[in-house]
Design goal:
Blueprint lengths: L5 H14 L2 H24 L8 H16 L3 H10 L9 H8 L12 H14 L1
Helix pairs in contact: 2-4, 3-4
Length: 126
């Protein structure tokens, strides 16, 4: 007889959780929670956490917009936690204004990183 072992059952559950994205979500949430704890503990040791330069915040927001657009929600959570930008989301209008980018109905459908990369590629071709 072919009996299902506990190891087989656990493997089947793991595969199922991987297929539907649940396992990735759990891992991302745990990583974000760990980063939040580490950030809180490190900020308890000093009076004020180091100020993040505006350029770094802008780059992080461009990356986060890209991650969310591509469905990498858990990577976005971890980046937000690691960069201490969990609750801070900069609107697309603010991002385009800071970058001097004109957003229209065509470009609004893609992350600004795609728009920026395609603009540089177009300049290289000319």
């Amino acid at each position: 007889m072919n009996e299902t072992t506990e190891a087989d059952l656990l493997q089947a559950i793991k595969e199922s959780l991987q297929k539907d994205g649940t396992l990735g979500r759990f891992k991302g949430e745990i990583r974000a929670a760990v980063m939040n704890v580490l950030n809180k503990n490190s900020s308890n040791q000093s009076e004020e956490p180091p100020k993040i330069p505006d350029e770094t915040k802008l780059i992080n927001e461009l990356i986060r917009e890209y991650l969310v657009w591509n469905g990498y929600f858990y990577a976005d959570q971890v980046l937000g936690a690691e960069s201490s930008q969990c609750g801070e989301r900069v609107s697309r209008d603010v991002l385009t204004a800071k970058l001097g980018v004109l957003d229209d109905s065509k470009t609004a459908k893609i992350p600004l990183l795609y728009y920026i990369v395609s603009a540089f590629q177009a300049n290289e071709e000319d």
